[in-house]
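Risk register update: the risk of archive-format incompatibility is retired. Evidence:
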Amino acid sequence: MKTVILAAGKGTRMGELTSDTPKPMLQVQGKPILEHIVTGTLAAGAESIHIITGWKADIIEGYFQDGSPWNTSITYSRQVVQNGTGKAPELAKDFVGDDCFLLTYGDILVRKSVYRGMVDRFFSCNYAALFTVVKCEDVSKGGLCFFDEDLCLTHMEEKPNAERVRALKNKGWIKDGDPLYYNAGVYLFRPTLFDYTAKLEKSPRGEYELTDALESMVKAKDRISGHVIDGFWADVRDPGVLAKLAAETSWD
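Archived output:
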């Protein structure tokens, strides 16, 4: 298994904090966010790591170098065109080769045990992919996910507005009392993912969406497993989240 980390964005919601520093290099409890991800995936069995860089790429590449301080190999690709999460992983296609790979955004923090649990579930069955979810109430900021009784994906809705949520309730997709699941942004894939990203078309937002590739996989009858994160999970999207993490002591 290998790890691919998407760390090309500037993180504009961080304001001045990312004027000179890429968001994945902002520190949480004395270490860059990205370092927590690197050490966590290595602890789960990743053999090598590839980081997709962009904004202030030299800071990330200078810090991690070739990975030898972490007893691993770290390589890089630079994403010149920011055209969405669906195309960014393709920059790591040669690195992935024929191996399975863990894919994560460079601003998502989870406990190390989450990575280990993902790996155990993924290799327990012949899944084409696995992705993490968290239980939520407000799904307007991300992907709403629906599963069958085996927690295999049946459908996704990317950032549904209030009108769409009402329609999903009327169709019986959302039922009172049932949990709602939000895409948590950490995945495991087989290299067949690239068969689907190669065929992506731009979404109404004008970007290539990774979730559209997952939808295509479902339509092709590929089995995609969910993995529920209970407890700590953080999307370090803005200064408020970063400030709260400074006081969090029970997650790593």
